[in-house]
């Protein structure tokens, strides 16, 4: 297998968004500790998710409750210059939340995306180490896996984006031709 850690010429800041499905209709309780751990990483941007039929942005947790902001809350648009006029004071106040809401972690929709920001390569390496040491432990079900080496069926890292996407699609199609797991299910209608 090819080596995963080929050094780029110049590191660029990275926003890493990892979509996850943590249950069928509800969050599986085995993931709760790993979700809570993800908020403690200094690179954490929180979770994008929600409750059924309502998108939310989760920014932390207290006990078994997650703290969230509602992106549907609208604010007035305007410019805050020197805060010399009353409307500028009101506008400035609208940039801050007066309260954050809470939701029991098991009431979240199981479709979430955990998000991180790594400004430097060292921060990315630190994130990988935090994931390995705090989320991939024998007493917790891992949310993600960090690999040192590339999987054999993945395309080489030096391919262009178009070639990589094409090869990945071909690889997926070839893998599915021998996948008979769908035979175990029957659609009722």
From TrEMBL:
It catalyses: [protein]-C-terminal L-amino acid-glycyl-phosphatidylethanolamide + H2O = [protein]-C-terminal L-amino acid-glycine + a 1,2-diacyl-sn-glycero-3-phosphoethanolamine. InterPro entries: Papain-like_cys_pep_sf, Peptidase_C54, Peptidase_C54_cat. Keywords: Autophagy, Cytoplasm, Hydrolase, Protease, Protein transport, Thiol protease, Transport. Residues 8-129 form the Peptidase C54 catalytic domain. GO terms for cellular component: cytoplasm. Its main location: cytoplasm. Its EC number is 3.4.22.-. It comes from the Eukaryota. GO terms for biological process: aggrephagy; autophagosome assembly; mitophagy; piecemeal microautophagy of the nucleus; protein processing; protein transport. It is found in: Cytoplasm. Coiled coil: none annotated. One of its GO terms (molecular function) is protein-phosphatidylethanolamide deconjugating activity. Cysteine protease that plays a key role in autophagy by mediating both proteolytic activation and delipidation of ATG8 family proteins. PANTHER family: CYSTEINE PROTEASE (PTHR22624:SF49), CYSTEINE PROTEASE ATG4 (PTHR22624). Belongs to the peptidase C54 family. This is Cysteine protease. It comes from Graphocephala atropunctata.
């Amino acid at each position: 297998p090819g080596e995963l850690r080929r050094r780029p010429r110049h590191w660029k800041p990275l926003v890493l968004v990892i979509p996850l499905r943590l249950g069928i209709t509800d969050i599986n309780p085995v993931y709760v500790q790993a979700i809570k751990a993800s908020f403690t990483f200094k690179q954490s941007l929180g979770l994008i998710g929600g409750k059924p039929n309502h998108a939310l942005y989760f920014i932390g947790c207290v006990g078994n409750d997650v703290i969230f902001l509602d992106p549907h809350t609208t604010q007035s648009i305007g410019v805050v210059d020197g805060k010399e006029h009353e409307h500028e004071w009101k506008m400035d106040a609208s940039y801050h939340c007066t309260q954050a809401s809470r939701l029991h972690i098991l009431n979240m929709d199981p479709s979430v995306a955990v998000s991180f920001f790594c400004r430097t390569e060292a921060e990315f390496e630190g994130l990988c180490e935090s994931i390995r040491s705090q989320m991939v432990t024998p007493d917790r079900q891992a949310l993600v896996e960090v690999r040192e080496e590339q999987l054999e069926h993945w395309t080489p890292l030096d391919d262009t984006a178009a070639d990589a996407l094409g090869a990945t699609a071909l690889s997926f199609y070839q893998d599915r031709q021998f996948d008979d797991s769908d035979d175990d299910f029957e659609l009722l209608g």
